[in-house]
């Protein structure tokens, strides 16, 4: 592996200062993507900044504006967190699918987001929970909708010297739930051929869908919302037929490619099936039977 300098700041201010150093500087959370990219010369670095020792980037707590997940907090911690399991079920699903237990212990949710792979498992659920990205850099701190964070495969809106500080997920209302499923040809340690996260908020008395959010992985250059499917659901009484229609509509938001992992047609079919299944899991989690 090419040599590079390494720094492990213990404050956000120090990290931001180091990010402004000359040469190619890269943030490092778990390193489960970055180390391989450096080893195989897909990325270069003169200086790598380890973010794991910065308290703000290790947050995992509910605030008045929602759940704060520090960008260096591990997938394992998020996967096992009681609040995540109670209120953000799809995020517990997704963080438990990344790689293996060993990978989850190192890999951060923020690293998954910043790596910006279309197949990243945590991003669809973060999108369905309407996560806000808090970005800190030399010009201060800014907040953007996570939906506006991804530019293309491996590309984000982060400017030179900026780091993702944390993600904020608004507290979901009562009678809502999310779920994430992906398809891989083997049981673990593989990249999603397609992944779907669904979130629904349902009126328990009338079974009317008050809000629906659906997002897809591995079927477009970036993670993508299935807005057509959301419109199919919102304001309607939830039925098996409506869930099937939402699955069909979700396919319209997918623009997949054919590659070694699956054909475009196969991926579209997976989106249809996984959308239906994740919606059904959401209903089970809310406690609504059809
Ligand atoms: C064996 C194996 C299996 C895997 N399986 C899966 C899988 O099933 N699903 C999946 O989605 N991924 C998988 N991955 C990919 C990887 O583990 C995940 O993407 C992981 O979440 C990356 O997190 P990290 O903390 O290790 O990121 P890092 O490798 O530390 O960083 C990833 C990228 O983001 C940048 N970055 C990190 N944090 C910040 C920040 N706060 N601000 C700005 N930039 C930042 C880095 O510079 C780098 O470019 C796998 C990887 C391996 C090696």
> Which oligomeric state applies?
single chain
Helix content: 25-40%
How does CATH name the architecture of the largest domain? 2-Layer Sandwich
Strand-residue proportion: 15-25%
Whole-number total of structural domains = 3
| Chain-averaged pLDDT | 97
SSE pattern: EHEHEEEHHHHHHEEEEEEEEEHHH
CATH class of the largest domain: Alpha Beta
The total of helices stands at 11
Whole-angstrom Rg: 19 Å
Describe the structure.
This protein is an alpha+beta fold and 290 residues long. It has 3 domains: 5-50, Uridine Diphospho-n-acetylenolpyruvylglucosamine Reductase, domain 2, CATH 3.30.43; 55-169, Uridine Diphospho-n-acetylenolpyruvylglucosamine Reductase, domain 3, CATH 3.30.465; 176-286, 2-Layer Sandwich (Enolase-like, domain 1), CATH 3.30.390. The chain has helices at 12-19, 34-39, 75-80, 82-87, 89-95, 101-106, 109-115, 123-128, 227-233, 240-251, 264-286; strands at residues 5-7, 25-28, 47-50, 60-63, 66-70, 132-137, 140-145, 150-152, 155-156, 163-169, 176-183, 194-202, 209-217, 224-225. A 5-stranded antiparallel β-sheet has the order 4-5-10-6-7, with helices on one face. Strands 11-12-13-14 form a 4-stranded antiparallel β-sheet. Strands 1-3-2 form a 3-stranded parallel β-sheet, with helices on one face. The longest helix has 23 residues, at 264-286. The radius of gyration is 19 Å and the shape is globular. The relative contact order is 0.12. Residues 26-34, 36, 51, 71, 97-99, 103, 106-108, 110-112, 114-115, 120-121, 158, 163-164, 189 line the site of flavin-adenine dinucleotide (FAD).
């Amino acid at each position: 592996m090419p040599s590079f300098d390494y720094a492990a700041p213990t404050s956000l201010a120090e990290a931001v200062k180091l990010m402004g150093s000359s040469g190619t500087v890269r943030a490092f959370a778990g390193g489960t993507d970055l180390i391989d990219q450096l080893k195989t010369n897909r990325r270069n670095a003169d200086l790598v900044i380890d973010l794991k020792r910065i308290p703000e980037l290790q947050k995992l707590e509910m605030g008045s504006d929602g759940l704060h997940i520090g960008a260096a907090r591990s997938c394992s911690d998020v996967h096992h967190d009681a609040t995540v399991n109670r209120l953000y079920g799809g995020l517990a699903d997704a963080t438990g699918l990344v790689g293996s237990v060993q990978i989850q212990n190192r890999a951060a949710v923020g690293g998954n987001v910043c790596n910006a792979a279309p197949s990243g498992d945590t991003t669809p659920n973060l999108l369905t929970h309407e996560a806000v990205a808090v970005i800190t850099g030399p010009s201060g701190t800014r907040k953007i909708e996570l939906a506006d964070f991804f530019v293309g495969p491996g590309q984000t809106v982060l400017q030179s010297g900026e780091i993702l500080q944390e993600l904020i997920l608004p507290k979901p209302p009562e009678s809502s739930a999310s779920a994430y499923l992906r398809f891989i040809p083997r049981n673990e340690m593989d990249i999603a051929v397609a992944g779907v996260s669904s979130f629904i908020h349902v009126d328990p008395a009338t079974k009317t869908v008050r809000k629906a959010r659906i997002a897809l992985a591995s079927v477009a250059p970036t993670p993508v919302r299935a807005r057509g499917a959301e419109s199919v659901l919102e304001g309607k009484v939830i039925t098996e037929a409506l869930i099937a229609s939402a699955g069909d509509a979700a396919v319209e938001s997918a623009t997949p490619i054919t590659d070694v992992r699956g054909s475009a047609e196969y991926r579209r079919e997976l989106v249809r099936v996984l959308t239906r299944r994740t919606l059904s899991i959401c209903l089970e989690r809310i406690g609504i039977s059809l």
